Amino acid sequence: MNNVIDLLKAHRSIRKYQDRQVDQKVIEELIRAGQCAATSSFIQACSVIQVNDPTTRQEISRVAADQKYVIEAPVFLVFCADMQRHKLACDMHQAEMLSGYTEQFLTASVDCALFAQNLLVAAESIGLGGCYIGAIRNNIARVDELLSLPEKVYPVFGMCLGYPAQDPETKPRLPVEVILKQETYDDKTDRDLIAAYDNKVRRYYHSRTDGKKDDSWSEQISGMLVKEARPHMLGYLRSKGFLLK
Amino acid sequence: MNNVIDLLKAHRSIRKYQDRQVDQKVIEELIRAGQCAATSSFIQACSVIQVNDPTTRQEISRVAADQKYVIEAPVFLVFCADMQRHKLACDMHQAEMLSGYTEQFLTASVDCALFAQNLLVAAESIGLGGCYIGAIRNNIARVDELLSLPEKVYPVFGMCLGYPAQDPETKPRLPVEVILKQETYDDKTDRDLIAAYDNKVRRYYHSRTDGKKDDSWSEQISGMLVKEARPHMLGYLRSKGFLLK
């Protein structure tokens, strides 16, 4: 429809990068673009930690399922949901902050996601590519410790950025009919639509791997969801002052 | 830097709309743009409910602090974190889904936020404007009921969209130096930077309200955080099968 929508629709994760640095001024401009995303009740609850130190990168990569691009990417950022800043704002006015609410955890986390998505779109618009690193949550307490995060701050995800040295295909998404529902939630036709989509995903993997990978969306999802999902998260988050009530 | 970054930096919430409909084909195109955002482990956990029915809109508006634009906006969408679809995928393969993990709540909620932000950027690129409606969580159980949401699906936020009939200023954000930190979390200079920013916000409100509103960022935040934050959220989410462990 226009070049912005074309850009959004061309998104794919980039995990291999040219040996070319990203200017610090550019990174700051990307942060500004991230900040311009909507923020719930103006809380601005996202902080970004830029990690350059090779030893820290190595250790985060080790935690994050040994993803080598965490070490190799010219830029590695960690997006943190930050309510420490709000504690400071309260202290500035001798106000006692009520914290620990699930609602606050949600709004701070969503704030980070809106920020990060704006930042990634901005990055892609100037020819950079990147990917989110959710795997930092594999051992989130260790990442927290490496970054010296205080109470009320937790790392939501990481992000690798750099000039792409690969050009993968975009990955087919679920049919719009499954995603967009009218007036109320209705999933009567979802099973058939997902079955048809499964075939599309299977063809995508086939063509990408010369027939080696034979997998569909529902198989992938069902294979993943029979396993525990980072069961340490609740305990960790509570230890940081989140999700207490 | 380029027209995409200019677009992102020009964002402001639009709450008044021209009396002009948005074509359904355009809405579907926006959904597709939303879907192209990154999705954690390919879970695609966002469903969108388009609400046109005036009675439902009226009731959601009532719940959402009587925000009239929920009734008036040409388009009103509710973004839902949806793991019902994953239950279906598991059923398709006779797999028993392990659910209730905090990690799953987080990834599904973040998925929705990335999706919604892409959708809003796409909307703004074609001349639409909009705003997020977090206030649907004021009485989230009522919104859930109105939309007939099943187990494992919850409404994260709403969004109003339409052709703008207002042109508000952009709102100044925190200094980059507060947001972007190097190597580890360090907030030693934050108090001074926030105090300077407070003055900037105060001038913004002054000029927007002809001197009637006298408020700073830290005052606004501290005023808000001495109150409870939607204390019903944890109970509601657990009743839907989220945040159980």
> What's the pLDDT, averaged over the residues of chain A?
97
What is the gyration radius of chain A calculated from CA atoms? 20 Å
Question: In which order are the strands of the major sheet of chain A placed?
Answer: 1-2-4-3
Enter the CATH topology name of the largest domain in chain A.
NADH Oxidase
How many beta-strand runs of chain A?
5
Highest-level CATH class of the largest domain in chain A = Alpha Beta
Just name the CATH architecture of the largest domain in chain A.
3-Layer(aba) Sandwich
Q: Give the terminus-to-terminus CA distance of chain A.
A: 45 Å
SS strand fraction of chain A: 5-15%
> Biggest interface and its residues per chain?
A-B, 119 and 119 residues
For this structure, what is the CATH homologous superfamily of the largest domain in chain A? NADH Oxidase
Shape of chain A: globular
Topology as H/E string of chain A?
Answer: HHEHHEHHEHEHEHHH
- Structural category of chain A is alpha+beta
Helix content of chain A: 40-55%
| Number of spatially distinct domains of chain A | 2
Low-confidence stretches of chain A: none
Helix and strand layout, with pairings?
The structure is a homodimer of 245-residue chains.
Chain A: H1 3-9, H2 24-35, E1 46-50, H3 54-63, H4 69-72, E2 75-82, H5 84-92, H6 102-125, E3 129-133, H7 140-146, E4 153-162, H8 176-179, E5 180-182, H9 190-208, H10 217-225, H11 233-239
Antiparallel strand pairs in A: 1-2, 2-4, 3-4
Helix pairs in contact in A: 2-6, 3-7
